[in-house]
Amino acid sequence: xxxxxxxxxxxxxxxxxxxxxxxxxxxxxxxxxxxxxxxxxxxxxxxxxxxxxxxxxxxxxxxxxxxxxxxxxxxxxxxxxxxxxxxxxxxxxxxxxxxxxxxxxxxxxxxxxxxxxxxxxxxxxxxxxxxxxxxxxxxxxxxxxxxxxxxxxxxxxxxxxxxxxxxxxxxxxxxx
Length: 176
What we know:
A 7-stranded mixed sheet has the order 3-2-1-4-5-7-6. It contains 7 helices and 7 strands. Helix 6 (108-118) links the parallel strand 4 (93-99) and strand 5 (119-130). The protein is globular, with a radius of gyration of 15 Å. It is an alpha/beta fold.
């Protein structure tokens, strides 16, 4: 299980600061799904960037409760659900965000199918994840994913943009 205090630590912002790159990726009218949101690290920044709905989805109830505690906004919908099967309406999402989460998801193909279901035809997938290289901390190299790994799963998508997250992470915007 992840360490809440590290996931929400101010130290995290030193090497992974959403305020540096999210404003260039999110529009004020975007409806967003943060899949595998954990304790709400990204959600707390997303609420400042859009006035539409944000779905914060995680199957871990403890994480969702923590996210509810740190994110107080009427436009956030917290769902204790698996990212492979959500109650998010079909074709309702402008941006799906996977922030350090997709590599941990068990059935990646089912999650991909769910993304296809919930995403509008013009929607984008934003991936913030650990680079597939050895670092002094982070998930094991064996579960990290390269750009090619993502494109093999998100086969109807192409990389529209790469962005700098920090020294340990890659940032990708995928579109159809």
